[in-house]
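pls design
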């Protein structure tokens, strides 16, 4: 009897392994790990800050960032890239200012899991839509600049792919595999982030202070958030062309220390964590090309006022597999 149970268990496990591998091969083409993958890319990165009041205008601070041109190499399943900045023109800096920044973003895409890690520090922002706050401002004038505004943002996202036998996250986002048939998967993301905002005086324009009464005189603060966000991704396949939209959205717990006109305050609130992705392009056995964009949103709530940071990365790429 024990031998029979043992035999049946071995057969069941073997069947599951064979079924899983067969399903994976039917939907996903794996490339040999000893292939050398060389890619060229053009990318842009930025970190935005928004102060939103219900039934009122949005105060938006943007950086004047530079595009990056780079080269990536992948071999034996490992990859690295190097890029350099191509700066804006002198006219751009006269109108929008010169933003200083460091921006490191790392990603890992496995069969079942994915990990993103970001470290960003930006200084010197400009106020978008200044005509809403200053009637004397005219198109072509320099945008109001906040050279005193400094923002640091650390974040880590860990996500699990439920239908990993049929859906590949690697295929659209680093081209080390190819999705053969259309497929989708539910996802689950956990996130941890730290947002630190510093400025010398209020980030709220003078004519908006009364509308932002709860945050009047807001100069910044430190915001720690832990989030849990379910999501879904789907790859549309048209021969060797693909398009893969992805969305995560869910609640987060936040601990806040911030400075307003009346002094320093602390609070604990619920917020929103969101992550939007889109990749599309062409992926064959040897050549690939396309674009990908990621928007990672952390929303901090204080009454009917929202402080939102948004990390945006966009890139165009093309490459060859040797």
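designed seq:
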């Amino acid at each position: 009897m024990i031998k029979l149970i043992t035999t049946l268990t071995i057969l069941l496990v073997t069947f599951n392994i064979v079924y899983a591998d067969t399903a994976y091969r039917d939907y996903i083409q794996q490339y040999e790990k000893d292939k050398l993958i060389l890619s060229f890319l053009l990318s842009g990165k930025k970190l935005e800050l928004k102060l939103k009041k219900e039934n009122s205008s949005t105060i938006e601070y943007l950086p004047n960032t530079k595009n990056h041109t780079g080269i990536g190499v992948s071999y034996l399943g490992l990859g690295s890239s190097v890029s350099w900045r191509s700066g804006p023109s002198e006219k751009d800096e006269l109108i929008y200012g010169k933003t200083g920044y460091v921006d490191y973003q790392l990603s890992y895409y496995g069969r079942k899991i994915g990990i993103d890690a970001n470290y960003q520090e930006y200084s010197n922002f400009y106020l978008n839509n200044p005509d809403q706050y200053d009637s004397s401002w005219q198109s072509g004038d320099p945008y109001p600049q906040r050279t005193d505004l400094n923002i640091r943002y650390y974040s880590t996202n860990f996500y699990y792919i439920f239908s990993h036998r049929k859906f590949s996250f690697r295929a659209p986002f680093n081209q080390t595999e190819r999705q053969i048939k259309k497929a989708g998967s539910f996802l689950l993301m956990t996130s941890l982030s730290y947002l630190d905002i510093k400025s010398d005086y209020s980030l709220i324009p003078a004519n908006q202070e009364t509308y932002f009464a709860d945050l009047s005189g807001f100069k910044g603060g430190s915001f720690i958030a832990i989030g849990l966000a379910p999501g879904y991704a789907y790859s549309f396949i048209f021969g060797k062309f693909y398009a893969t939209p992805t969305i995560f959205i869910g609640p987060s717990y936040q601990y806040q220390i911030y400075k307003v006109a009346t002094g320093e305050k602390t609070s604990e609130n619920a917020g929103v964590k969101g992550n939007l992705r889109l990749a599309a392009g062409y992926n064959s056995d040897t050549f690939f090309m396309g674009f990908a964009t990621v928007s990672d949103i952390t929303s901090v709530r204080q009454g009917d006022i929202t402080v939102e940071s948004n990390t945006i990365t966009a890139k165009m790429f093309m490459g060859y597999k040797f």
